[in-house]
Amino acid sequence: MFPSYKVKVTGLNPKTKYILLMDIVPADDHRYKFADNKWSVTGKAEPAMPGRLYVHPDSPATGAHWMRQLVSFQKLKLTNNHLDPFGHIILNSMHKYQPRLHIVKADENNGFGSKNTAFCTHVFPETAFIAVTSYQNHKVSPIPRNQRAWGSLLICITQLKIENNPFAKGFRGSDDMELHRMSRMQ
Known about the structure:
The chain is α+β, with helices and mostly antiparallel strands and 186 residues long. It contains three helices and eleven strands; from the N terminus they run βββββαββββββαα. It folds into two domains: 6-135, Transcription factor, T-box (Immunoglobulin-like, Sandwich); 137-185, no CATH class. Strands 2, 3, 4, 5, 9, 10 and 11 form a seven-stranded antiparallel β-sheet that branches. A hairpin with a 2-residue loop joins strand 2 (17-35) and strand 3.
């Protein structure tokens, strides 16, 4: 997931163990398209896949651990493959989603299976997003490295995302490779 979800956790008991989980649920029942520099509704959403939970890899950990620094969900993986066997969270492209953070008090077995398990859910509306499968803007062409001077007005958002997104490796490489890949998307 890029950009990755990061959260500052406060108010936990420092000695109690907690499990942090995330799920991503449909934000509405629409399908979207991006045209004329804006998102617009194009129809009804496809049926949502059964939800999957992502358990933060540090779980279970004490409240002190979770509150020490920002908690990053950078290892959370998204896919549009409905047959995904790897436990990634399955989303439909061009649909709007809302991440939800769940903080669960771990039971004596460091799990959370009991119906009496204490938990809370946090939703931050500003983290809603529309899932896309690739950089599809045909008007964007990569900027050759020799023209990327500091302060250059040529740098565009898509290029920055490609350069900084660890999951966009297929769009990086030599300048010739970048131009070829981007031209194939037109």
